[in-house]
Design goal:
This protein is α+β, with helices and mostly antiparallel strands. The protein has 2 domains: 66 residues, Nuclear Transport Factor 2, Chain: A (Roll), CATH 3.10.450; 83 residues, Archaeosine Trna-guanine Transglycosylase, Chain: A, domain 4 (Roll). Helices cover 21% and strands 36% of the residues. It contains 5 helices and 11 strands.
Length: 165
């Protein structure tokens, strides 16, 4: 259930367009055109619902998977670039801080500037945030300091709190 949302079913044309976009940007979501897709406005965010469950939020021109939904997947099935951060960075990230170069211990997959990146904690190997890459993976590997990924959605933020299970 989602609190404070005004939502409605997508038209066939909107549904087709959204599914095409999801398949291109986030293929691991496996959405079926035969299932119910809705769009809603929740606390000034555009949220997409699949079979009644919130799965995506639109931030700028990006479709961002909700972490509550991402946590349902096996981490190895998520075909999204991942950055593993040390445990010292986790608390800061969960308070909204951006991801800094010194906190990164590993990069999984190829990252281009502007890509969505899943932020993973080193100890439990679980997603804790979704960020927007400010640099490519090659550039990040050679950086010793500075902000490298903008934190756009993390566990416990306003988007996370839009839904509850």
């Amino acid at each position: 259930m989602v609190l404070g949302c005004i939502r409605h079913a997508l038209s066939k044309k909107e549904k087709k367009s959204l599914i095409k976009r999801i398949l291109a940007e986030l293929p691991f979501l496996n959405v079926s055109p035969k299932k119910n897709l809705e769009i809603g406005t929740c606390d000034s965010y555009t949220v997409y619902f699949y079979e009644g469950q919130p799965i995506l939020v639109e931030i700028g021109d990006k479709l961002v998977p909700l972490l509550r939904h991402v946590l349902r997947f096996n981490i190895n099935d998520l075909r999204m670039p991942k950055v593993v951060v040390d445990m010292g960075a986790v608390k800061r990230i969960l308070n909204g801080a951006n991801i800094m170069a010194p906190g990164i211990v590993d990069i999984e997959g190829s990252i281009s500037k502007g890509d969505l990146v899943l932020i993973i904690d080193e100890k439990y190997h679980k997603p804790i945030a979704v960020g927007l890459a400010l640099y490519s993976s090659d550039e990040i590997k050679h950086m010793k300091r500075g902000k490298v990924i903008r934190n756009i959605h993390y566990i416990g933020d306003k988007i996370w709190r839009l839904s509850y299970s």
